[in-house]
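Dear colleagues,

I hope this message finds you well. In preparation for our joint manuscript, I am sending the F-box domain-containing protein (Rhododendron simsii) sequence together with its predicted structure, so that both groups work from identical material. I would be grateful if you could confirm receipt.
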Amino acid sequence: MEETWSCIPNLLIWMIMERLQFIDSLCLSAVCKHWLNAFHNFPKEETASYCNFPWLMITKSKDHRGSEREFSSPWTKTKFTVDFPEFAKTFVLNSKNGWVLLLTCSDCCEQVPRVFLLNPFTRVKLQMPRRPLLFGVRLSAISMLEGTPNCVALVITYRYIAIAHPGVDAWKIFTIPSALLYLRIVHIFFVDHYLYLMDIYGRAVLRFNTIDFTMTNLFMGKTYPFGKEEKDTYFLQCNKEIIRVSSNGLIPYGRFSRYGFTEAAWSFHKYSISKATGEALDDDEIRGKSWFLSNCGAKFSSVAEGTPVEKVHFLSKFKKKACHRLFSCNLNSPGKDAHSYFGNLSRKNTVWINMG
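The corresponding structure tokens are as follows:
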């Protein structure tokens, strides 16, 4: 059997990656499946690694109709601009492992709105099926398999669940039980092959099996003592667990301030499906992680492991000034001296791009 470039041992690929910038390493991972596997198994150093820290994607034109996007990493002070036709007339629905889920704008396109996946770092595009029912997409989630998107879920007008794999011909559409419509579904997450729908109180009310397409009602009309609705609450995933991050009410929009942010009290809870309640995270579960929150765009939240200092990074949009600001707070040393303020990022649309 003739050997090819795809047969290079992982150790040699890792030696090459040690000499590359992060963007070049991502391009390396797009060569073939073997190189992609080597990229994901690259040994991480004990020191801070920013490879899995999210990037900021900023719309360069006046609105979403343009095709230019700027990618910025506040952690490495790296910036680059791309001009991809795929970005024109699209909105960001979600992102995961460097992939962006985009929806074409119905007001700008003569055709039916379409959803597709794009990796802006490698420019690999995965088509999703076309379907007229894509009007009114409210929530979305992406499941991954070996670093590649495996399944996409959409909640449409809070009444339907649409499921599809990249490359298939049509979406599978399922109706959310009428008994759950009044609960206000505000988050959806993939955990293995299950899709969980969460209500505004942070309770999992519906579990959807993406293999046999069965639904399990987890609510059943019961009232769980999970707590009241909290406006300053954000949900994310960490090691296949659903995490709730809450503040003391100083975060959103006009009430947000750089000094109030550093004095905010943060709490972290993991959701127990069986108990339908949240359990406080231990210090060991919080240690070595950075938490990324946002009140704008796709309201993306994420966590990155392998960091020496625990921090909360918050991307905020100020409605009055129409600008985006990024704040950072050291969880171990709360107070005014423990924060970083990155200033006004842009008056244009800015969102997190999840890399982990």
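For the figure legend, we might mention the following. Residues 1-51 form one domain. Residues 323 and 347 are 4 Å apart (CA to CA).

With kind regards,
E.M.
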